Amino acid sequence: MAFSDVYSPPTPPPLTKYDVFISFNGKDTRNGFTSHLHSALCRNQIETFIDYRIEKGGEIWEELVQAIRDSSVYLVIFSEHYASSKWCLRELAEIIELTNMMEKGHHRIIPVFYRIEPTHVRKQTGSYYNVFADYDRNLNYRLVRQWRKALFHAANISGFEYQPHHSRTESDLIEGIVQMIVRKLDQKYTNELRSPFIHDQNYACIESVLSHSKEVRTIGIWGMGGIGKTTIAAAIFQEFSPKYEGSCFLANVREESSRHGLNYIFNRLLSELLHEHVHITTPKIVSSAIIRRLRRKKVFIVLDDVNTSEFLENLLGVGQDYLGLGSKVIVTTRDKHVFLSRSVDHIHEVMEMNEENSLKLFSLNAFNRNHPPENGYWDLSKRALAYARGNPLALKVLGSFLHSKTEKEWDNALTKLKRIPNADIQKVLRLSFNELDDTEKDIFLDIACFFKGEEKEKVIRILNECGFFADIGIRNLLDKALISIATNKSIQMHDLLQEMGHKIVCEESLKNPGKRSRVWHPDEICDILKNDKGSATIETIYLDMTERTEICISSDALRKMPKLRLLAFANNNGYGQKRVDYTLSLSTNLELPNDLRYIQWDGCPLKSLSTTSWPSKLVELSMPYSDLEKLWDEPLNFPSLELIYLASSKQMIECPDLSGAPNLKEVWVNGCDKLTHLHPSILSLPKLSGLCVFGCTELKSLSCTTCSPSLRDVVAYNCPNLQEFSIPISKDNSHINLHLRSTALKQLPSSIVHLQNLDNFSFPINDLLMDLPEKFTNQIILSDPDNHECDTVATLSTILPSPMFHYLKELKFDRCPSLTELPDNISLLSSLLLITIHDTNIMTFPESIKNFPRLKLLFICHCERLQLVPELPPSLQAFKAWDCKSLRTVSSSREQLKRQQGTTFAFLNCVKLEEESCFTILKDSIVRAEAQQQSPRLEENRNEEFIDDYGDSFLSEHDVSVGKVCYFLPIRGSKLDDLFHHCSSQNSISIQLPLSSNFSGFIFYLVVPPVQPCDKGDIEMSFGFECYLETSWVQRIHKASSCSLRWRNCVYIGFQMNLLSDHVLLWYDSQCCKQIMEIIRGRKAIDDDDNNANLEVKFFARLPNKEEVVIKECGIRWIYTNMEKDSRGCRFKRSRQVFELEEKGLESDDAGEELVPPAKKFKHSLMEVESVENLRKKLEQLLHIQFDGGSPIS
Predict the structure, then answer these.
(1) What are the boundaries of the signal sequence (predicted)?
(2) Is the pLDDT of residue 363 over 60?
(3) Which of 770, 786, 789, 1101 is most buried when burial is the number of CB atoms within 10 A of its CB?
């Protein structure tokens, strides 16, 4: 690695002698405005050079030059006679020359136009005209030209203007100037904190909130211990506090208040804000004099590590209500509940650092450089990152600890962490645990040692039966950031917090695992079970069977654990298969402790458990993939049992009588190949809500005399021998999901023909469906007919006009290999919003598909003979084709384009798409994005199109992001450069925004490489970007956007996310564009001459397991408003180099300004530049003026 990559801790810039140098004409302002301004600067402890500080007898010019070089900020006060002073012009020329040699040097100049128009200074007109006319006649041309350029340059910098007729007073002007100088000095001297600090998305989000609010605001920063709350708050405080009249950072409020009490904290806050000693006996009683003073001050406050809502109420009960306009309060806490008892305007949850920033922060601490050396330390660093999992505290502690150690020592230390956690990290994390009550601690430890990754409702159900009040307990753990809920509703816990839970349990008995409350280590569990080393202390056992091939359970092992509540022998991969085989040594009569609430035994090798003593308190029995033939012989009493899960138990032939389980809600026996019938007692249970028997290939009958009034789901598809379905479902119980597709039913069950408003219904394609009534169901899934000799297409064409289909909202085809085409009359289904087609042999769609008036979503999966997608309906907002490996041609749909709330088109692994079709799809995407940019009409569409219950929630349920255009497809050819103005071969791009007044937004793209199948069950890939707008008025505004491509549908169970080739994502976010454009337009309204704005965009892509995907390429395309206004006169030209619009009346309002085509098409040749430059010089000499534009290009 190059030596230049070595990191040195940030050091302050060299201290200059003066903070500010004032250049002014004494005749105009010395005894008035300048003297008042100088006094204000001195009152604010700003060291200022003014000309009367020149020592007598000294060389005046040399001292002025030295003062200029010894100053940080240059305040130039342009007045009526400023140009009359050659001293002033020489000072200004020296300042411009000096700042031109610095990076962003013009940011150090503050022009003040005092009783003079800026244009008079810029163009040397008005009172400056005659002065310079005289200079042109009598002075050297080069000197005069230098002065003109200096005036032109300085007058183009954003500053302050004062005119007598303005409502703004001189005192207001002086206050504004002082505040700007303070900000610039703070930017110059602010250190990035003493230790390395990464400006990540957390910092940027809070910065953005602060930048966009002029009211009094309280912002909460919340997250787990060590996640960086205090560090972020400190960095924000350093950046923003100098812009306020008063500020206070109260660190460690939790600790300080416990030591000194609330009054001490409150008095310290008031004293720092008011810059004097204040003593208040109670925060509830504050003198009116102090309140008045606070109300007049705009202040910035940070309250760090607040742990009670009462404390915040007492402080902000006075603070927020009595702070001056524009004041800001930042509160950091580990407990979200602190924010919920009063009005906190914005709560930001601090997220884990991404992999890139984690590596950088770790490397800065471990190597004093931005990334590890290219040797063995790289892989070791990845291990450290995997351990820290984005926690900044852990990254810093580990990096500092491993600094300067050998590779062998690194390996040893990282291996040790698996058994002995780092004490410094644990100390910080344990503070949150210590604040929990006893039942909350039990819940936390049960999750850490047993339930991590399990469904939230399941955990709550079981722990409530353990007496832990889990509903409120889980909520409190969430508020304290000790757990989180994933998108699939499972409970997750950071690895460091889980490690802390393990450490707490181990401390119960350091040497004897059998005397701990919870055990999870495979070796320790096997030793306890085999050698009877358990005790009455043990409450939970979780054994990962994938790490053991032999298990021995002695006859007395479980008898010694009377308090055992949770028992799991976990051994599955989630898709109905065993992961490993193992041998089991077990006594004949297995006695289970009566306190057991939960039993999980994946792949149980026993044939029967009929002699087992079952616990009466059992809540859930989970024994999937087992070798069980039956559970028990006689009815048993299970008053608390709510769920039985026996999926994929291939040998099961009998499902027992469950009449002794009156609270049973769910029974899962799907995939039990030898099961021929269910005991009638099951469907009669009063609280049964769900029965899953799908994939039971020998199941012949589902029948009972009475039906549970609670029944909501009967899932019996893929039961090819199911010939009888006689469950008497009540008409009052209509809102159910009933799946009977891929069965052998010869007629419609009489028990269902009277039903209406089923949530979901599935059945084979069959003439019988014609007998179902209108409004029978909102959605139907159709499968192949059970009679393989019938004509599937003809049958489908016959049944589609029948009553049941009139009001259908969703139509799905699942595993219909005999379906080779969709009939034309499918367009009769005018109410359809969604069509899903999975595993069929269709080759195209009927042309009539474009006539669907309300179709929003069209999903196609594993239709490997599909070759052509014709023009689609204009109402369509999402089209997803996945693994359609013969798809070649996609027709354009932009002729009938309607503006949509959001659009998602994906062609995942459609690897045979022709290059021309790919180009067509990309052009359609750009047209859609540019059309959506017209927000007023978009709002009209929102009101017109969704007049029923199927609105935004329906779209979001199917992952269509409102306000975004997302297109994803295999990349073909090399035409991306032709479609976009700027491209990069990295994962980020930084460019200057166009100057055109017609510029209104932007479209992004990125390219990702092939991806191997992900080992997570979710079929999803997420994308996002961090967008930073940097302006010439020293602002850095952050915006973020994200989107996900998901396939969340029952027909995709078991598939995995992968990419077979390079894919491109095109992406437009209307909200992000709108916010950035509002900022730019707002600033231009204040200063029309301020045009410099730079956009920096950083992209990411992630798999379901959160693994980062490489970004191979990215780019940006500008959007201009008049493209839409004159769209009828615009069309795409197909060319290797061109993606241009034929311009018909698209000239810019500003002469010479190009609107749309890529910048690279309009580079001037060197000869053209030189000729223009020579002409400009001649005109300047003849007319004695300075042209605004300078050189025609930069």
Answers:
(1) none
(2) yes
(3) 1101
The lowest-confidence range among 202-216, 663-677, 773-787, 837-851 is 202-216
* Contact predicate 64/21, CB 8 Å: no
β-strands 737-739, 724-726 pairing: unpaired
Residues 403 and 342 in one domain: no
Q: Does 401 lie in the same domain as 338?
A: no
What mean pLDDT, rounded, does the chain reach? Answer: 82
Q: Which of these is catalytic: 47, 62, 63, 91? A: 91
The separation between CA 987 and the C-alpha centre of its own chain, rounded to angstroms, equals 17
Are 436 and 403 in the same domain? no
Decide if 548 is inside a domain: no
pTM of the full structure: 0.74
Q: Distance (Å, rounded) from C-alpha 911 to C-alpha 889? A: 11
Q: Cα 822–875–1126 angle (5° rounding)?
A: 130
Tokens found for residue 699: 């199941």
Give percent helix, percent strand, percent coil of the chain, each to the nearest 5. Answer: 35, 20, 45
CB atoms within 10 A of CB 899: 20
Higher pLDDT, 556 or 898: 556
pLDDT recorded at residue 468: 95
| Residues 395 and 361: beta-carbon distance below 8 Å | yes
**φ, ψ for residue 132, nearest 5 deg:** -75, -25
- Residue 624's pLDDT band (cuts 50, 70, 90): very high
- Please confirm, yes or no, whether 207 is among the known catalytic residues: no
Query: Tell me: the pLDDT tens digits for 498-522?
Result: 999 999 999 999 999 999 999 999 9
Helix or strand (DSSP H, E) at 235: helix 229-240
| 717 occurs within a structural domain | no
Percent of the chain topping pLDDT 70: 82
Average pLDDT over residues 60-75: 90
Same structural domain, 362 and 338: no
pLDDT in the model for residue 641: 95
Task: Compute the distance between CA of residue 656 and CA of residue 221 in angstroms, rounded to an integer.
Answer: 54
- Cα dihedral 892/894/897/899 (nearest 10): 110
Residue 974 CA to residue 1111 CA, distance in Å, equals 17
| CA nearest neighbour of 957 among 882, 858, 1048, 1023 | 1048
CB 677 within 8 A of CB 685: no
pLDDT for 488 equals 75
Count of CB atoms situated within 10 Å of the CB of 489? 11
Give residue-wise pLDDT tens across range 923-934. 888 888 888 776
- The tens digit of pLDDT for each residue in 396-431 reads 999 999 998 899 999 999 999 888 888 889 989 998
Rounded to whole angstroms, the Cα distance separating 995 from 1080 reads 11
Contact 494, 477 (CB under 8 A): no
Tell me the residue type at 100: N
Q: Torsions phi, psi of 52, nearest 5? A: -75, 0
Q: Are residues 449 and 397 in the same domain?
A: no
Closest CA to 898 of 876, 883, 868: 876
Closest to 882 measured CA to CA, from 903, 900, 902, 858: 858
Is the per-residue pLDDT at 1127 higher than 50?
Answer: no
Rounded Cα distance, 842 and 802, in Å:
23
Q: Is the pLDDT of residue 1034 over 70?
A: no
8: burial class by Cβ within 10 Å (0-12, 13-18, 19+)? exposed
Token pair for 712: 């909501």
How far is Cα 395 from Cα 403, in angstroms, rounded to an integer?
12
Could you give the count of Cα atoms lying within 13 Å of 228 in the half-sphere of its Cβ? 31
Residue 28 lies in a domain: yes
Among 329, 349, 369, identify where a domain stops. 349
CA distance 1045 to 966: 9
Domain residues for the domain of 470 are 424-508
Q: Which of 442-451, 838-847, 892-901 has the lowest mean pLDDT?
A: 892-901
Using left for φ > 0, alpha for ψ between -120 and 50, and beta otherwise, residue 206 falls in alpha
